[in-house]
Amino acid sequence: MLKTDINLLTKFCRKLLFSSLILSSPLALAEDFTIERLSLFVSDGANVYENRPLNTAINTLPSNISVDFQTKTDANGDTVWQWNLKNKSKVNYNNLRITGLIDVDLDAPSNTFFNEYGSLLSLSAPSGYIAPDKWEISEPGYLKGDLITRASHGSLKNTSVYNDASTTDDPAMALSIDIGNLRAGQEIIAVATLAGNSTIGLTQQDSITSPKTFFNFYAKKGYFDRAYPDMVQGGLLTTGSAIKEGNVWVWGFRGSSQQGNGTKVVSSNKDPAKVNSLANIIGLTGGAYHLIALDNEGNVYGWGQSGYGETGCKPTQSIYVSTPCKVLKNAVQIGAGEYFSVALDADGKVWTWGHNLYGQLGNNGKKNSQIPIAVDLKGEKARLIGGAYEGAFAVTEEGHVWAWGDNEASGLGFQGSNYGVQKLIRTPTRVPNLDQYADRMTYIAGGNGWGEALLDDGTVIGWGLHAALGQGTTKTNISSPEPVVVMKNVAQLYARYVGSIALTEDGKIYTWGQTGGSAFPMIYGAFPTLRTPHANDPVVSVGGGKEHVFYQTESGAIYGVGYNDLHKIDQTKCCASSIDWPGKGVTVGNTR
């Protein structure tokens, strides 16, 4: 992944997770502190890595672990340091522990090298973050043993040898967190704070003049780019697509300009082909017959069928766009419904284009739009968006969820109509039932009469049609706007049309949803159902379309399950029967 990819993704992650913690005010360290050393250690029980960003900068992290470091001040003027560590490889790191170590000298009047001491206040972290479980306050070098060595291995003593004012040495402070496994594509965000007043973390104090510093350290782990796994997350009917090394590959039905190389029709029995005009792509989604891509510079491109304007491009052949055109710039997220598209830009603005019969564009009209339309969220800034079947969601930095479009079966989170009966909401409207979860959402999307969100602790919640939410029923007369818990321990979620596929933190695949339809019984189930992928090749990404799912493994292999037509899954047959688990391999480029 290119450096610009990482910058864009980490920029988005910071906006997503730390908008209330890290402000844009300039750095203003207190004048009576001298920071001798700040280190982030990463250990896996066998190897030790370090990122030391201040003073003598050192970075020994593996080349496939990218690091982005920032220094900020919060609303109280306290210092906040943040590391974004991303596993951009195809392998997993196991048994990880991260440790933050700081050596602060107090420079107040009358202070000397030998009158500082430290103590533990408490170990805690903000909601949704992992708190330290090991700590130590000690001299970092030769006087009391090598704290730096113990910190680098995470083997701290949960003790302080500097717990009273009679201490005559200069202590350093370390806090350590058990992270566990870091899967391919996963990220750790580690935050260290240095405050002038606190009740948590470790404190260092001068015995003569009593200035204090307070050090705390906590972390969050997850698939923070999970909206953009390599597999497409959209509603494509008989077309397959994926991102490989920044390139877009398309296969299966390509009779509506989906191939994107200037020709309206490419036979479905042709090999998967790369979209020649696109590069450095980090996001890919689509509707029934159109595709939307996002590159690492924030440019959005559209192509395929555009009878309603869903590509955002002026058709070049009847209602078709055969070569991707640039639709929007400065974007950080994209989504799609059946015949419309939605995007979020870096300023927190939401844009929609395409079909509008059911209020999908959120502008209180019915007219379709070939160009992006700004969505009015009453002055709030969005940080997360998601497409549903005929509607959309936006989650704002202010902690609210907004929704618009078809609220059939309460699928937008409001009390709605019965399943199969449309209930239209043409302007973005706050969803009170979801406000309590808004700050914790990392993914949101929906299908026909239902919606789901993935929370930062791996919990999936859903609302609307219970038959699509894994609640143990196949009846379509049971729905509710009240959120229910679907499952936990989820790292990646794909929600579309009538069901969902989840990848758990330990690499297992579960599916749930409605079971009526050509391939739905083998794809979904009334409850979250454990599926068996191909053995000995860990799954790293999931996605799919309207009646099929794809998953990608650590080796780069892609497998498809579900409705099989026009060489979408079985590339040797036009109209083969549906493919059951563990799926059939799809050859894309030089890998299967």
TrEMBL record:
Domain of life according to the entry: Bacteria
Signal peptide limits: 1-30
Keywords: Signal
Full protein name: Uncharacterized protein
Organism: Snodgrassella alvi
